[in-house]
Amino acid sequence: MTDTTLSTVGTVRPVPPLSRAIQLGVATCLILGGLLNGGLQYADHLLAGDPERRELLVWGLEHHAVYQAVWFGVMLSSVCLLLGLLGLAQITRWRAPRLTAVATVLTVLGMWGFGNVLAGTYVAHVVVPDVLGVDAAVTLVEDGYLKDWGMVAGSLVPHLVGSFFGVLLLAVACWRAGLPKVPAVLLIVFLVWDFALSPIGIVEPHVLLLVALVWLGVAVARMPQREWLGQSALPADPLR
Asked: Is 183 helix (H, G, I), strand (E, B) or coil?
């Protein structure tokens, strides 16, 4: 018979239905998010290099099937990332509730903008060059996406603000909650590198995202159920 309760000091708490399935689902989303976003964007960098926008669009048109598959996978990653990051927040909230609450709001906002950015990128980089040509795609990005207030307010700003600060705070919360510290640091380094710096040769920041999310996904999958449910955590720190 399967034991459906976890005992704590003086109490016996029932295990929520599908708890283990949800835990494994979160782990899977983190791993898939790392592979589909970090892995595919790093592969794209290795294949196409780091050219100017026009040269990149020309390369994508010449390798249309590969480019289409890569950016569809990256677009799909936004769903996995959102679910995986919310799953991390479920863990960190026991030790850093206030920090997690702020991080969660910013992360959801950022992932909304990020999904819009990825959808726009797919249209501009994959669909338009194939249908209307490279010149039209360059015009769409430079005179459309980057100047249209709706695209800026509905995708770029939420992504740049929400994703950066949301994931940054969530990485700090992971550190404080006792999750592996190396992937938490890698997430922070990735954010700074991706938002502010350029690739160094064949080394590109998304490889750090790949390693960090897969590492965290494995850690969540192997996490004892008591820890997943917050029943072995230390009391919450009121300053966190």
From this structure: helix
Enumerate residues 6+ apart whose C-beta is below 8 A from 150. Answer: none
Residues pairing with 11 in the sheet = 8
State the Cα–Cα distance between residues 221 and 28, nearest whole angstrom: 8
SS3 197: coil
Q: Encoding tokens for residue 148? A: 């249209």
Residue 5: predicted pLDDT: 47
Per-10-residue mean pLDDT for the chain, 240 residues long? 45 74 96 96 84 85 92 96 96 94 97 95 93 91 87 93 96 94 96 87 91 97 89 53
Provide the residue type at 99 as one letter. Answer: L
* Displacement of CA 72 from its chain's centroid (Å): 15
- Put simply, whether the predicted model's pTM sits higher than 0.85 gets the answer yes
Structure tokens at 83: 């679910």
**168-173 contacts at long range (C-beta below 8 A, 24 or more positions apart):** 169/99, 169/102, 169/103, 169/106, 170/85, 170/88, 170/89, 170/92, 170/100, 170/103, 170/104, 170/107, 172/96, 172/99, 172/103, 173/88, 173/89, 173/92, 173/95, 173/96, 173/99, 173/100, 173/103, 173/240
Which pair of tokens denotes residue 54?
Answer: 């026009």
Amino acid in the structure at residue 155:
S
Burial class (CB in 10 A: 0-12, 13-18, 19+), 16: exposed
Q: Who's near 136: CB < 8 A, 6+ residues apart? A: 128, 129
- Tell me the two tokens of residue 6: 């976890």
- Please enumerate in sequence order all residues whose Cβ is within 8 A of that of 220, keeping only pairs 6 or more positions apart, or say none: 23, 26, 27, 30, 87, 88, 91, 228
- pLDDT value of residue 232: 67
